[in-house]
Design a protein that fits this description.
heterodimer, A: 11-stranded mixed sheet, B: alpha/beta, 9 helices, 24% strand, binds adenosine-5'-triphosphate, binds magnesium ion
Chain lengths: 481, 267
C-alpha cells in the first residue's frame, strides 16, 4: 500500500505514527445519552430507521455488562468521559471531492505514506480514509461504480444505498451481540461499505485506512461488505493513532456476507498506538468481526497482523452456513512491553461439507501477554465438516506469556477436527548461528520471527506483506538485549 | 614476515561453569590449513565457540589476535563481518526462512560493514549460483528453509555453501566431515579445496584422517585436556589414525616424531 521508501521511512525506531495533526475538529460533548445518539444520527443526515436502529442498540447496551472473561487486565472504562463524535471540519458542507478535503488531512495521510490525491494514487488500490469519526476521502469510486461496485463511506451508503444497508446491517453481528458491538451499533460514526454485484470480480484491492487523531475520542467504525453470487473482493484495512497518555477506545464492527460462490478476503494490519514501555496510554481495541458464508461454495478469509494496541480483544469469525463453504483465519499477533492480546476466531460449521482452517501465530516479548482463544463448532447438520487448526507461540525473553484456549464442540460424528499447537522460544543457539553469519541481534530476531509468521504473511497481498514485516520489526524493537 | 592471521596465546576459557581451555597457543598464517584433532570432550568445539564469541563461553585468560586486533573484544556479528566464519558441528534450524533470503541478509550485513554497496536480489542470485557451482552444490538447498528438515549430511554441505557465499578470511570448520557418506565427503573436501586461497586460512576440526587425505593440511595439532599437546605436519594425522590417542594416557609414548615441532607432550 505504500512504496518501499515510505515503508522504510516508517520503519524507524519507536512508534513512528505517534504524531498528531492540527486539524480543525468538530466534536460532540463528552458522554453518552440518547441525545448524543440522536446527534450523531442527525450529523450524518440519516433516515429515521437508522436513528431508531441506533437507539434500540443504545437501550440494549444500557442493560449489558462489559465482558471480563478475556485474559486481559485493565482498569474501569468511564464511558461518560469519552467523546463519541469527532470530525475534521469540512470546508463546505462535507467533502464531495478531494479538493474540498482539509489540506492538513491530506498532509497527515501523506505522512502516513498513503497519498490520497488521485494524481499520486496508489496503483491498483482504492482507498477509503477515515479520520476519527468520519470518512474523509474515497479514491477510485468512479472506476469501480462503472462495474456496479459500490465502495464508499458508511454514511454515504446509508444515504445513497439505504435499501442495501437496511437489508444486511446487523444480520451477521446483531446490535445486541455483545457489549462492544451494541455500543458500536449505537454510536458508530463512519466506516466503509462495499457491495460487489453478482458475477463481478473486483479488479483492485479495496482498502480503508483508519486514523484516530483527536484526543479523548473513541473510534467506532462499522464496515459492511457484501459479495453477491459469484462475486469476489479483496479488502484491506490499516490503522494508526497518535501517542497519547490516556487510553482510547476503539470498538469496531465488521460484517461480511458472501452469497453462492462468492469470496471475500479481508486483511488487517492493525497498528494502533500500543502505549509506552510502562504501559501508559495506548488503544483498547475491542472489535467484533464476523463473516457469514451464506451461499454454497462461498469462502471468507480473515488475515490479520496485530502489532499495535495496548489491549486487543477480537475474534474474526466465520459462520459456514452454505454447503461446501470455506472459512479461513490467518493471524499474527505480537505483544511487546505491556501489551495484551486475547484474539482468535470462531468457526461455526452449519452446512454440509464445510471446511475451516485456522493458523495462528502468537509472538510475545517484553512483558507482553498473548492469548489465543478459538472455538470450532460442528453443528448437528454439518455432515462431513472439517477443521484444521494450528496455533503456535513464540516467546522472546523470560518475562512474557503465551496462552492457548482452543474450544471444540463437535455435534456431528462425521466431523473431523485436527488441532496442532506448539510453543517455542527463540533460542540462544539460533541467535548465535545468525549472528555468526553477520546479522545484528535485532535482525536475527526479525528473521526468526518472519520465518515463524511466513505461513500467514503468504496470505497477505504483496504490498501488505512487506509492510507487515517492517511493522513486526518496529514492534519488537528493543526486545533483545 | 607478515603477522599471522590468527594468533592465540595461552588462551584459557570455560564453557558454562566448566574450565575447558587451559592455556592454548596457536598461530595460523594466511594461506594455511590447520587441522585440530583430539578426543571427545577435549575442548575443540569450545575453542571454536570462544573464537566466534558464543554466549556461555568465557575467556579467563590469554589473548587471541585476528589480523593484529583483539578478536575477543568484538561482538559475534562483528567477528563474522570481519571475516571469521564458523561451520557449526550442529547447524541450527531456522524454520520458514529460506537459505537464499538468509544468506542475502548476511552477505549484505558483511558488505555494509566493509563499506560496500548492498547486493540486490538479482545480483545476489548470480553470485550465489556462481559460488554454488564452485563448491559443486545444487541450488536445491538454497530455496529450502535454513537447515529445516535437512539430513545430517545436507546440513554439513549447507555450511560449506554458506562459507562459499560469505567469502570469509578465517574459517573454522567444526567436524564438517562427520556424518557424511563417502561421496558427500568428497564433495565437501573439494569445496574446501576450491576455497583455499593465499589470503585465506582454515582450521579444520576433525576426528578422521580421511578428510585430511583430500584436504592436505599444513599443520596438524592434537588438543587434549584444553591444550595443544602435539603439533606436526600432515603425517601426524596418519600416526594418530594408526595409534589413537593412547599416548595421551600419561606414559609419554607419543614423543616428538619426525618433523614435529611445537609444544611437547604434556601427558
Ligand atoms: N555449556 C557447558 N556447560 C558445561 N560444560 C560444557 C558446556 N559446553 C561444553 N562443556 C564441556 O566442555 C568439554 C569440552 O566440550 P567440547 O564440545 O568443546 O568438546 P569437543 O572436543 O568438541 O568434543 P567432540 O569431539 O565430542 O565434539 C566437554 O566435557 C563438555 O561436556
Ligand atoms: Mg565438538
Amino acid at each position: 500500500m505504500a512504496s518501499p521508501e515510505t515503508i522504510h521511512a516508517l520503519a524507524t525506531k519507536e512508534y513512528p505514527y505517534g504524531f498528531s495533526s492540527d486539524i480543525a475538529e468538530e466534536t460532540a460533548p463528552r458522554g453518552l445519552s440518547e441525545e448524543i445518539v440522536r446527534l450523531i444520527s442527525r450529523k450524518k443526515g440519516e433516515p429515521d430507521w437508522m436513528t431508531e436502529w441506533r437507539l434500540k442498540a443504545y437501550r440494549h447496551w444500557l442493560t449489558m455488562e462489559e465482558p471480563r472473561w478475556a485474559n486481559v487486565r485493565y482498569g474501569p472504562i468511564n464511558y461518560q468521559d469519552i467523546i463519541y463524535y469527532a470530525a475534521p471540519k469540512p470546508k463546505g458542507s462535507g467533502p464531495k471531492s478531494l479538493d474540498e478535503v482539509d489540506p492538513e488531512v491530506l498532509k497527515m495521510f501523506d505522512k502516513l505514506g498513503i497519498p490520497l490525491h488521485e494524481r499520486e494514487k496508489l496503483a491498483g488500490v482504492a482507498v477509503d480514509a477515515v479520520v476519527d469519526s468520519v470518512s474523509v476521502a474515497t479514491t477510485f469510486k468512479k472506476k469501480l461504480s462503472e462495474m456496479g461496485i459500490v465502495f464508499c463511506s458508511f454514511s454515504e451508503a446509508v444515504r445513497e444505498h439505504g435499501d442495501l444497508v437496511r437489508r444486511y446491517l446487523g444480520t451477521v453481528v446483531p446490535a445486541n451481540d455483545n457489549f462492544f458491538a451494541a455500543l458500536n451499533s449505537a454510536v458508530f460514526s463512519d466506516g466503509s461499505f462495499c457491495y460487489v454485484p453478482k458475477g463481478v470480480r473486483c479488479p483492485m484491492e479495496l482498502s480503508t485506512y483508519f486514523r484516530i487523531n483527536a484526543a479523548d475520542t473513541g473510534q467506532f467504525e462499522r464496515t459492511l461488505i457484501i459479495t453477491e453470487e459469484g462475486a469476489s473482493v479483496s479488502y484491506l484495512e490499516g490503522c494508526t493513532a497518535p501517542k497519547r497518555d490516556k487510553n482510547q477506545l476503539h470498538a469496531a464492527v465488521v460484517e461480511l456476507i458472501a452469497l453462492d460462490d462468492a469470496q471475500i478476503k479481508y486483511s488487517t494490519v492493525q497498528n494502533w498506538y500500543p502505549g509506552d514501555k510502562e504501559g501508559r496510554g495506548g488503544i483498547y481495541n475491542f472489535v467484533t468481526k464476523r463473516g457469514a458464508c451464506r451461499g454454497r461454495n462461498s469462502r471468507i478469509s480473515w488475515t490479520q497482523v496485530e502489532t499495535g494496541s495496548a489491549i486487543t480483544w477480537k475474534y474474526p469469525s466465520c459462520i459456514l452456513q452454505g454447503e461446501n463453504s470455506v472459512g479461513e483465519f490467518y493471524s499474527v499477533a505480537v505483544v511487546n512491553n505491556r501489551q495484551q492480546a486475547d484474539t482468535g476466531t470462531k468457526m461455526i460449521h452449519i452446512g454440509k461439507n464445510t471446511k475451516s482452517t485456522i493458523i495462528s501465530k502468537g509472538i510475545s516479548a517484553g512483558r507482553g501477554q498473548n492469548t489465543y482463544r478459538g472455538l470450532v463448532r460442528i453443528q448437528r447438520g454439518a455432515e462431513g465438516a472439517r477443521n484444521y487448526s494450528q496455533c503456535d507461540s513464540l516467546l522472546i525473553g523470560e518475562t512474557c506469556g503465551a496462552h492457548t484456549f482452543p474450544y471444540l464442540d463437535v455435534q456431528n460424528p462425521s466431523g473431523q477436527v485436527e488441532h496442532e499447537a506448539s510453543t517455542s522460544k527463540i533460542g540462544e543457539d539460533q541467535l548465535f548461528y545468525l549472528r555468526q553469519r553477520g546479522l545484528s541481534p535485532e535482525d536475527a530476531v526479525n528473521l526468526i520471527v518472519n520465518g515463524f509468521c511466513k505461513r500467514v504473511f503468504k496470505e497477505l497481498p504483496m504490498e501488505f506483506a512487506v509492510e507487515a514485516q517492517k511493522l513486526l520489526a518496529v514492534s519488537l524493537e528493543g526486545s533483545v538485549g | 614476515m607478515v603477522a599471522p592471521l590468527l594468533e592465540i596465546r595461552d588462551l584459557q576459557a570455560s564453557a558454562g561453569e566448566r574450565p575447558v581451555l587451559r592455556g592454548l597457543t596457536l598461530s595460523v598464517r594466511a594461506g594455511e590449513v590447520h587441522a585440530i584433532m583430539g578426543p571427545n570432550g577435549s575442548g575443540k568445539s569450545t575453542l571454536a565457540h570462544v573464537l566466534a564469541g558464543r554466549e556461555g563461553t568465557k575467556v579467563t585468560g590469554g589473548t587471541a589476535l585476528y589480523q593484529g586486533r583483539d578478536l575477543l573484544a568484538l561482538a559475534p556479528e562483528d567477528r563474522a563481518r570481519e571475516g571469521v566464519f564458523l561451520a557449526f558441528q550442529y547447524p541450527v534450524e531456522i524454520p520458514g526462512v529460506s537459505n537464499v533470503y538468509f544468506l542475502k541478509a548476511a552477505l549484505n550485513a558483511i558488505r555494509r560493514h566493509r563499506g560496500e554497496p548492498e547486493m540486490d536480489a538479482a545480483d545476489f542470485l548470480v553470485h550465489v549460483r556462481e559460488r554454488a557451482r564452485l563448491v559443486q552444490m545444487s541450488e536445491a538447498l538454497l530455496q529450502r528453509p535454513v537447515n529445516e528438515g535437512f539430513s545430517g549430511g545436507e546440513k554439513k554441505r549447507n555450511e560449506i555453501l554458506q562459507m562459499a557465499v560469505l567469502d570469509p578470511r578465517l574459517s573454522i570448520l567444526d567436524e564438517t566431515d562427520s556424518g557424511l557418506d563417502i561421496d558427500a565427503l568428497k564433495v565437501v573436501a573439494d569445496g574446501i579445496n576450491a576455497l583455499r586461497r593465499p589470503d585465506r586460512a582454515m582450521v579444520l576440526i576433525t576426528h578422521y584422517q580421511r578428510l585430511l587425505s583430500y584436504v592436505v593440511p599444513d599443520r596438524v595439532h592434537v588438543l587434549a585436556d584444553g591444550q595443544l599437546v602435539r603439533s606436526g605436519g600432515k603425517e601426524l594425522a596418519l600416526e594418530l589414525e594408526e595409534r589413537g590417542y593412547g599416548f595421551l594416557a600419561g606414559n609419554g609414548s607419543g614423543g616428538a616424531g619426525p618433523g614435529v615441532t611445537g609444544p611437547e607432550v604434556t601427558g
